[in-house]
Amino acid sequence: MPPINVRNDQQSGSARAGTKAGRTKPSRDGAAPGPHDDVMSSVDGGPRSVAPARVTMRELRRARNLRRLVLVFLAAFLVLGALNFFGGRRAHAEATGDGYQLQVSYPMTGRPGIGAPIQIQVQHSGGFTDPITLAMSSDYLDLFSVQSIDPQPSQETTTQNTVIWQFDQPPGDTLTISFDSQFQAEEHPGTHAAAVSILRDGQPSAQVRLRTWEAP
Q: Do residues 161 and 207 make contact, with C-beta atoms less than 8 angstroms apart?
């Protein structure tokens, strides 16, 4: 009976055990992880929890100041609303030229849906010998819903940027035109500028500038 080489069997078993212990589980894409690959593990098999980021004192102060600023803004908005700042405040503008005096009373501030009457007064010493022609920026007029104009213009012309009215000469030396109007229901928040002019031969004789702020 030939002798059994126990040493060789033990070496073979050790080699097999070393090979088995040295095996590395491949990754999902089929490649074995390298020595620098991060391996996440936990007792229950889920991903390891990540600690929350630290917040510096500077970031805390910035957030606190931002909250204070928002509160101050809201408080100011409420106070201005209580004082009717966003309501129907009015302004007055006037100009002279070529013997004419032009005066316009108009809404300086307002909000959608409230009344916004406009009044234009034209004076000429010695009275009028010709019809009076007035022009207004059409974009500005689009802010309002005009119910009526008194007196009615005898002619009305609209160009790309301007609405032009012609009025018959009144008795005396003053023409007063009243617009029964209100802010459109649609919002046009912000500041809107306009020009109102007395035209003679197509050129402004007297002109005033208007500026109206509409609240949202």
A: no
